[in-house]
Amino acid sequence: MEQIICRLEEITEHGGISFNYTQCGESREGFVLVYQGQLRAYVNSCPHTGVTLNWSENQFFDYSQQFIQCSVHGAIFQPLTGACVRGPCLGQNLSPLEVKLDDQQLVLILDE
Ligand code: FES
Hints:
The protein has one domain (2-109): Rieske [2Fe-2S] iron-sulphur domain (Rieske Iron-sulfur Protein).
């Protein structure tokens, strides 16, 4: 199953866009970002407690603009791998989502 998320130009470098999707009959939230010219998407859920990561709507990066940072306890994640490199969930990972670029539109790809 595929779902259009947004157009590529809507995402700024070091920005992100959150979106909702349904999987296994459950409504879930994800986010997509562009970092160093590469697209990544993750489930919007901190491995520490499961809360959403963003500070405000579509703000996922820390002050340095180099890392994703959880707004609750400050865990730091590598944007390109989703690995937690500092904080209470050190060594754990954000859950990746599969996305593709199709005619300048970002498309989420979900297993049936
Ligand atoms: S909830 Fe994200 S670091 Fe604690």
